[in-house]
Design a protein that fits this description.
Layout (H helix, E strand, L loop, with lengths): L2 E6 L7 H16 L3 E6 L5 H12 L5 H25 L4 E4 L6 E3 L8 E4 L1 H12 L3 E5 L2 E4 L4 E3 L5 H12 L3 E6 L20 E3 H9 L7 H10 L3 E5 L7 E4 L12 E17 L4 H11 L4 E6 L6 E9 L3 H14 L4 E14 L9 H11 L6 E5 L2 E7 L3 H11 L5
Parallel strand pairs: 1-2, 1-9, 2-6, 3-6, 4-7, 9-11, 10-12
Antiparallel strand pairs: 4-5, 7-8, 11-12, 13-15, 13-16, 14-15, 16-18, 17-18
Helix pairs in contact: 1-3, 2-3, 5-7, 6-7, 8-9, 10-11
The structure holds adenosine-5'-diphosphate, aspartic acid and magnesium ion.
Length: 407
């Protein structure tokens, strides 16, 4: 039987009992004759604790050193899981990201995978061939010259999909604390429904709009290389959600899901001289600082000056400020202001390509719930709005109801 790649997230390996539970699940698959490569996250909370500790030492720690620190979390889990498997008589061997041959670019804290070292992939295959379970630390890799990197929050999903691709696995299973991808976060709407199948494109839009059940980049990678995967629970045997290429039936559903992203901040650069090249420079310095800008709004110009507002993720706000403030002074804009306390609600579905009226329906639902919309953006299969964070969950419930997604 073929190779299966399984990934267990933070909650699934949250303590010793859960690590033992994972070991016995892995042993069961192995007993059925499969080869297994298992990717694991840090125990839940560990990555956040490490970040908090770094910030106690220095408010803005160096990204290079942060990566060295954060990689510890996953390294603890691979060793403990290997020991738990040995304890029940299953041969297993652990690999850090670097030992698994994962080479990334050098954008510390959100590095992209470039390739695998073939010699290391061969080594993993050799272990699998000897009947050993290969356990790989998620979320980490190394640069060509050997610096430790991490792959962005939630990055163990990416490690799993990349390893499934590199090893040519028969299937890739993402085990988490929910038994699939739901129409919205079931913690916000308990009546949300499990989606049996969705396309890469929908999963990607939901993930990048804040549905953290999958890391967006991992879905991008899966789409690029055609790696089908299934999201399942590590706590039960329920069938999960299959994420795969689009098929004919999928466009029948207009709205597949509703996402919420609380990790948002709005920046306004006021009094910007309204002349060619200013926006290019502003977004140029942000790009050079690796700040991802999401929505952008420019007001109508009055007396030769204008305001430009844009959103960034909250954890990139300090970087955005550091990059943009000198430019604000240089171009003679009147100010830089930032506001947290906002959130983004998005509706996603490939059926939107062929069905109209979704924006109107969404705005009606938000209006009826008393929410004010601050910014809007649309793509072919997604509509997003920025609202006050305090009312965001109410907004998600209203929109979810409006499109009849509940059970
Ligand atoms: P892991 O540690 O296993 O990677 P995560 O915490 O990253 O798990 O992702 C699982 C969580 O994603 C769930 O507990 C759930 O609250 C959240 N979530 C957000 N949106 C969705 C959705 N549409 N469907 C399922 N879970 C979602
Ligand atoms: N431990 C990392 C994080 O918390 C990676 C992951 O869990 O996927 O973001
Ligand atoms: Mg995750």
């Amino acid at each position: 039987m073929g190779l299966i790649v399984q990934k267990y997230g933070g909650t699934s390996v949250g303590d010793v009992a859960r690590i033992k539970n994972v070991a016995s699940r892995v042993a069961r698959w192995k007993g059925e004759g499969h080869s297994l490569a298992v990717v694991v996250s840090a125990r839940s909370g560990v990555t956040n604790e490490l970040i908090a500790r770094a910030k106690e030492v220095k408010a803005q720690p160096s990204d290079r050193e942060l990566d060295v620190l954060l990689a510890i979390g996953e390294q603890e889990t691979i060793a403990l899981l290997a020991m738990a498997l040995h304890d029940i008589g299953v041969p297993a061997v652990s690999f850090t990201g670097a030992q698994a041959g994962i080479i990334t670019d050098d954008v510390h804290t959100k590095a992209r995978i470039r390739q695998f070292r073939p010699g290391r992939v061969a080594e993993m295959r050799k272990c699998l061939g000897r009947g050993e379970v290969v356990i790989v630390a998620g979320f980490q890799g190394e640069t060509e010259d050997g610096r430790v990197t991490t792959l962005g929050r939630g990055g163990s999903d990416l490690s799993a999909i990349a390893i499934a691709h590199a090893l040519g696995a028969e299937s890739c299973q993402i085990y988490t604390d929910v038994d699939g991808v739901y129409t919205t976060d079931p913690r916000i709407v308990p009546g949300a429904r499990k989606i049996p199948e969705l396309s890469y494109e929908e999963m990607l839009e939901m993930a990048s709009a804040g549905s953290k059940v999958m890391q967006a980049r991992s879905v991008e990678f899966a789409n690029k290389y055609g790696v089908r995967f299934e999201v399942r629970s590590s706590m039960n045997e329920n069938p999960g959600t299959i994420v795969k290429e689009e098929d004919d039936g999928m466009e029948q559903v207009v709205v597949r899901g509703v996402s919420l992203d609380r990790n948002q901040a709005k920046v306004t650069v006021a009094g910007v001289p309204d002349r060619p090249g200013v926006a290019a420079r502003l977004f140029g310095v942000l790009a050079a600082a690796s700040v991802n800008v999401d929505m952008i709004v420019q007001n109508v110009s009055a007396s030769g000056v204008t305001d430009i507002s844009f959103t960034v993720s909250r954890d990139e706000l300090a970087k955005a400020r550091a990059a943009a403030e000198p430019l604000v002074r240089e171009v003679g804009a009147s100010g830089f202001s930032a506001r947290e306390g906002i959130a983004k609600i998005s509706v996603v579905g490939i059926g939107m390509r062929s069905h109209g009226g979704v924006a109107a329906g969404m705005f009606e639902a938000l209006a009826a719930a008393g929410l004010n919309i601050q910014m809007i953006s649309t793509s072919e299969i997604k509509i997003s709005v920025i609202v006050d964070e305090a009312n965001a969950e109410k907004g998600v419930r209203a929109v979810h109801d409006k499109f009849g997604l509940g059970g």
